[in-house]
Amino acid sequence: VQLQACGGGSVQAGGSLRLSCTASGRTFSSYTMGWFRQAPGKEREFVAAITLSGSSTQYADSVKGRFTISRDNAKNTVWLRMNSLKPEDTAVYSCARSKYPRLSRLLYEYDYWGQGTQVTVSS
Length: 123
Hints:
The protein is mainly β. 0% of the residues lie in helices and 49% in strands. The strands form two sheets. Strands 2, 4, 5, 6, 9, 10 and 11 form a seven-stranded mixed beta sheet that branches.
């Protein structure tokens, strides 16, 4: 399984970006997918997750109400729409595939990771 993330960039505070992550292989629809981020000098942290069908989602408290995760299994793609961006959202964002069909914010429950895409928010 290969995951390819893109869509990062530089925006001013209050702006928006949409990240996308496209997966290879036929089993995309069988797994929960997640987004994580890592800021300079900090550990990787959970951002959002979405179940197989897309019917359930989970968000970190810091992004709830501003970020939206969605997926299209026919396109093997998961998106992260980020609105009202803040400087503290600056990080490298990575998508990942969970080992399990349930929602999870635990890094060790994700077994495949895409390369990161940089998001920089200036004040």
